[in-house]
Structures are given as structure tokens and as C-alpha cells.
Amino acid sequence: MSYFDHPFLSLLCLLPLIFFTVFRRQKQAHRRNPAPQSYPIIGNLPGLIRNRHRFHDWVADMLSETPSSTLQVNSFLNLSHGVCTANPVNVHHLLVANFQNYVKGSRFRDHLHELLGHGIFGVDGDLWNVQRKISSHEFKTKSIKHFISDVVSSQLAHNLVPRLSTASDENRAVDLQEILQRFTFSNICKVAFGVEISSLDNVDSGFAFAKAFDDAVEFCSSRFFNPIPAVWKIQRLLNIGSEKRLKEAIRIVNDFALEIIKSKENEEQIEENRDLLSRFMSKTSSEMEFEDEETRRKFLRDIVISFVLAGKDSTSTALTWFFWLINGHPRCERLIVDELAELDSNFTYDDLKKLNYLHAALSESLRLFPPVPINSRITVDDDVWPDGTHVSKGWFSDYSAYAMGRMTTVWGPDCREFKPERWLDGGGGGVFKPSDQFKFPVFHCGPRTCLGKEMAFVQMKTIVVALMREFEIVAVDGGATAERMMNPPYTLSLLLKMRGGLQVRLKKRMGV
């Protein structure tokens, strides 16, 4: 056997060439795109490990150090490449101008397929188009808007306010984030499936599903933030660790979804029901063809999961940060309370539109703490962004809504301050003035803009009106002080949930 026939010795001989090639590729990439805190071979791994607890602020810091608020991401051993931006011009290019070149792609499917399947949030092309078409039509109907408004009002009156009133009477601290999560879950079950969960404390199959769904989201999220993807892939292959727990959580999720679908199939005149799943089932039966019943049910299962993902935690997450911020800014709280005092007790959908300061405060909260802090695509073909950033085929292309809210180039030198007035024409007493959507991509932009944006604001306003007219909500930790604003307590996940929850005490408000 010759010297080069031995596999180990051959590998040793090739290592210098491998490292030279990797180093050269990274040096070439660095000459094209800024890549702060990136090193040959190990890429951004050291910075990721050091800043894992403050990942989004770390990304914002690096983006602010680059000339165009865009950076290149280099993974460990050069296994993947990507770019991340907080530049509105690039966001427009990514989500609108060259929309067809940026897709969810294999990376998104690989990380989230067990949970999302072929639902609207994880697919491209025809599968996305047909779901978007049906969803867009349903969200534009007046009947669904009134149905959602009625559900929220009913749930507030019968579930949320009574529960908080009891906590107030007992002077007991509660985790507002957890309570809001349960409340929004009850809402989405009623709106999306027509399922009534009568008690927020009811531990039934519904809340078992909610727990399993949360676990599945967390396990899938950890895949994205794992610096060495091979680790979770090996765990999945061997069915051990978090991947085994993910599999168990998905089983519970699937069982619940199938139970919901069967209940809808047993209902008569399904097209006359007002919940979203019934409407979707009616539309798909006339506009889509399936190989067999099992395929149809799998597709409907993915629709169920999409509804839950869209409506379960995004609103509760947004409101948690809103109440945290308001606690640290008493002047803003007073202005909101004063505005609510002008609202009739039997307010309507149109009355909510007149709450300019509340709308500004919610928008400002979303600017600083977007429920989905970062969004990702895969590049189909080589491209050059408006700022000169080179993006190669197969690279991931991210934009950080969280970082964008902290860019002085986008929002000015006071960008890290909570100032609802920046959204008002003429200051504190002015009319709400929408921002350029590419400066504020919290609800996404372009063809994939969130269909539920308007209803999300209606839901958030309705909840804030009900709670702030009834209670003074006092954060146990004092809320968003200047120091805490610099190091906010969030978790590293697909959603920007508050780490440890939001502990509050409630006092009955007088004279509102």
C-alpha cells in the first residue's frame, strides 16, 4: 500500500489545502461584505457563545458598526453563509423588489417542517399562493372582523377580567405574560376552530396541546441557534435529547389537530360556520384536489398549526412588552388613561380607531420589541443588494426587525427610547401617522405582509382598554427602567417572549 492509500494520512495531507481554501474564501467574502467578530475557520462562533443571552442586541450592535447596517454571517467551519440587514432599502429589495429570489427554502423546511408541515408560513410557490388567496379573502370579510371582535369582548368579560379581579382582591402577584398567553390561546381556539375553552384554569386536552405546541416551538427554535447543526441532526437520527422530546410534543399537537378536523367534518352545513377552519375547509373542498383523505387531513392539520402560530403568542408577547414599558413610563400611562376616559363604555370598532395615542404607544412598543425579532430567507440566485452587499446562491438572507428599531440611521439618536410621540403628527395630542413599512417591518412587507395586522391592533386595543380602565397594573420589578432597557430580559426563540414572565400586582382603578 502506498503512502497516499492510507485514509488517515491522506486526510492529514489534505488538511492544509482545506484550511487554505476555507481561509481564502472567507478573506474574499470579507473584502466584499463587512463581517464583524468573524474569524477564519471558526466564523462568528466565539461571539455567538459569548452573547447567546443577548443575541438580538449583539446582532444590533454589530449592524450599527457596519456602514450600511448590513453584515455577513460566517458559520463554524464555513458550513453555511448568510447576510443580515437592518437597512430599509435592503428590506424593500428582499421582500418586494426581488421577492422571487428570496424564499423560505430548504433551511426553513429542515428546521420547522415537523411543526409547520406545508402550512402557509413554511412553503413557497403554488402551495403558498393558494393558502394566501383563501386567507386574504376571508380576512377581508366583515363577518370575520365582527366575529373576532365579538370573541375578544366575550372572553374579556367572562374570563380575563374576572380572573384579574380576583387576583386584585387577594393582592396576589400574577404572571401577566402567562395569563395573556392563555387568554390569546382561548381566543384563537374560538376564532379559528369554534372551540370554546370555558376556563383559563382548565387543564384539558386543549391546554395539553398548548403546552406541547410551546415545547415544539422552543425545540425547533433551538435548531436555528445551534452553532453546530450536526448536533441536533444526530439527536434526531438517534431519537435522543431535545429531538426525542420534540417528537413527543408533535404527537400531541397532531392528535389535537386531527380531533379538531374531525369535529368540523361532523358538523352540518360547514360553510355557514364563522370560524376560520370551517371557512378554509369549505374553500379547499372546491378549489383544491387531494390524492386521498389522509393527504387532505394532513393539509388541514398544517392549516390548524398555522392559525395557532399566527394567533396564539404574537399578541400576548406584544402586550407583555407594552405593559412592561408603560410601567417604566408613567407619563405615557397617564396619557393613555386620559384618552380612554373619553371612550364610551359601549365602544365600537370605529371608536377604537380614534385612540391615536394608544395606537402610537402600541406601535412604539412593537418597534422596540417586535414579537418576531428576526426573519430569514434563502437566496435562489446570486444577487447584489442596493447597498452593494453581495449575496450568493444558497445563502440565508435575514432582516432583523429588532435591530432596525435600534438603528440611529433609521430612527434617529433617540431610537432606544420609548417615545410614542414619534408616531403622532404634531406631538402628544396629534393624529397617528403611520411609518414607512420598510422602517417598521414588524408585520412583514410586500406579498407576505401579515393579513391579520389590522385585527391584531383591534385585539390589542380592546384588551388594553378593558384592563387599563379597570386596573392599575404595577410591575413587581418596576418595569422598563433606563438600565433594563439596555439589557431587556428576553428569551432566545422564534418569538421574543419575556424571560421569567412579567410579575404584576393589580389595583382597582377609580374614576376612569
From TrEMBL:
Residues 1-29 form the signal peptide. Keywords: Heme, Iron, Metal-binding, Monooxygenase, Oxidoreductase, Signal. The keyword DNA damage does not apply. Its cofactor is heme. GO terms for molecular function: heme binding; iron ion binding; monooxygenase activity; oxidoreductase activity, acting on paired donors, with incorporation or reduction of molecular oxygen. One of its GO terms (biological process) is lipid metabolic process. InterPro entries: Cyt_P450, Cyt_P450_CS, Cyt_P450_E_grp-I, Cyt_P450_sf. Coiled coil: none annotated. Heme binds at C450. The keyword Ligase does not apply. Belongs to the cytochrome P450 family. This is Cytochrome P450, family 94, subfamily D, polypeptide 2. It comes from Hibiscus trionum (Flower of an hour).
